[in-house]
Task: structure prediction
Amino acid sequence: MIKKTVRFLCALLLSLQSAQSIALEDPVQMLQQVTRTVMAKINADATDLKKHPNELYAIVDTTVFPHVDFVEMARWVVGRNAWRDASETVRQSFMTEFKTLVVRSYAHSLLEYVDYTFEFLPLRTDPQTQKRLEVLSKVQGDGRVLNMEYRLVRENDTWKVYDIIFENVSLVQGYRAQFAEDIQRNGVEAVVETLHKKNERAHHTAKPLKQDA
Result:
């Protein structure tokens, strides 16, 4: 009876592990689907979206950013020590303002690649055994081939992006360099206030985007 029980429990454990493997999201397919969806919307209405940027921001916010880990991104941007020392209220405020900034910036950048193609390369590692991984892609158009790398972290059975490296320039490192001096001198809360003012100005002075943006 004991042997049968042990065999049953072992079989059950193996079946659960197999089910978890099957359920794990494919990071390349996820990025392909998200990119295909958002670029289809932008390609179809690029001219109108340039005239009404808030609609563009909404597309990016609802289509792309559910697949972004803003907590992990914020930790890298702020620095782990400053992030650890900040209160939960300050952390949440920073993520709110930082997300608004990134949505606008990323949305503007996507307009530069209307009618470009995005090719995602096969993974170099097995995602089943990884907690973090990189997905490489090539962006092609106007006679150019540009390199893009997505860095992802695993959250249960899904993958979320926490950094994008475009032509060897890291999104996270760029923002970290931008905020570092202010954080060191005045703390994260001061950066939150600066970002809030910047986002408010951008919201109230929103204008149609340039046609060559």
Summary: Residues 3-22 have pLDDT under 50 and may be disordered. Residues 23-204 form a domain with the Nuclear Transport Factor 2; Chain: A, fold (CATH 3.10.450.710). The chain is about 60% helix and 15% strand.
